[in-house]
UniProtKB/TrEMBL annotation:
InterPro entries: NTF2-like_dom_sf (IPR032710), SnoaL-like (IPR037401). This is SnoaL-like domain-containing protein. The lineage of its organism: Bacteria, Bacillati, Actinomycetota, Actinomycetes, Mycobacteriales. Pfam families: SnoaL_4 (PF13577). Residues 12-136 form the SnoaL-like domain.
Amino acid sequence: MTDIADLERRLQRIEDERAIERMIASYGPLVDAGEADAAAELWAVDGSYDVEGWRMAGRADVAAMVRSDAHQGLIGRGCCHFLGPAVVTVDGDDAVAMCDSILVTRRGDGFAVSRAGANHFRLRRIDDRWQIVERRTRMLDGSVEARRLLTDGVAGR
């Protein structure tokens, strides 16, 4: 028989997983809308984002990336940063999540996939909300590193 304390733990885990999934899913719409400050708030103050060897350290760097001419040009031409469903593993106030992503860009009258990526997140509950402490993204180009991000994330590492 399940006791109340066990049900409370299970419910908390589900709520934590859902909050993390929602946060990760919000990244694409925020950067596609050019909402630099809101996107940066997904990260911890000292969180990092390493994409293809470009390392951003802290919220200010993430916001600067969204405000950059390169990113503004991308969204001005039409694009969609889509992060697929996340596999989330919660351990108290720490968590790991993994998902695939695609960048779809407007080409003429249609759209084309410009990039596919593997994303690995380390998260922490800070000030009563989940925040990204580290995100690594690698192109799904067959590399061992990209595949390792996926397998580690699924395993909760």
